[in-house]
Write a structure and sequence with these properties.
By secondary structure, this protein is mostly helical. Helices cover about 85% and strands about 0% of the residues. It has a domain at about 40-130. The relative contact order is 0.11.
């Protein structure tokens, strides 16, 4: 007498049909993530653009001030004065430009925190809604399965 193994395929299909999965919550989460990624990319690109503008201006100003150092002077002491003036203005420009970089970084940091807080709130609301919906569907499916078993 050979024993025959039970085929669980039909049982599994019936069980999976009783607990339908709603993929709209996953699609909404994906859309939220894509939107957050887009906002973060925009923020990073704006910061890179602003940093590039600061660097470009700093370079142009330095080159313009360096021109005064490279011109021929009548007296040797004028070379020393020109170099001292250049060093002084370079230090001042460095201070101003580093402060400008700091402002860009501060703005990026504040906007990033705002985006992350908004995303966390949205994610929390989405998860709450999805959990509530899944719970309601599972409860309904369990009640249906119980009613059919009777």
């Amino acid at each position: 007498m050979a024993t025959q193994t039970q085929d669980f395929t039909k049982i599994m299909q019936d069980m999976m049909a009783s607990f339908p999965v709603d993929t709209s919550a996953m699609q909404d989460a994906f859309k939220s993530q894509a939107a957050l990624g887009e906002k973060m990319s925009k923020l990073a690109l704006e910061a890179a653009e602003k940093s590039n503008e600061i660097s470009s201006k700093w370079t142009k100003d330095t080159i313009a001030k360096l021109g005064a150092v490279t011109t021929v002077k009548a007296e040797p002491t004028e070379y020393s004065k020109a170099f001292t003036d250049f060093a002084s203005s370079s230090a001042e420009m460095a201070s101003e430009n580093l402060a400008a970089y700091a402002e860009v970084a501060k703005k990026v940091q504040m906007e990033t925190v705002e985006l992350m807080m908004a995303a966390g709130k949205d994610f929390s609301e989405d998860m709450t809604a999805a959990t509530k919906k899944a719970t309601n569907e599972a409860t309904a499916a369990a009640k249906k399965a119980t009613a059919q078993a009777k």
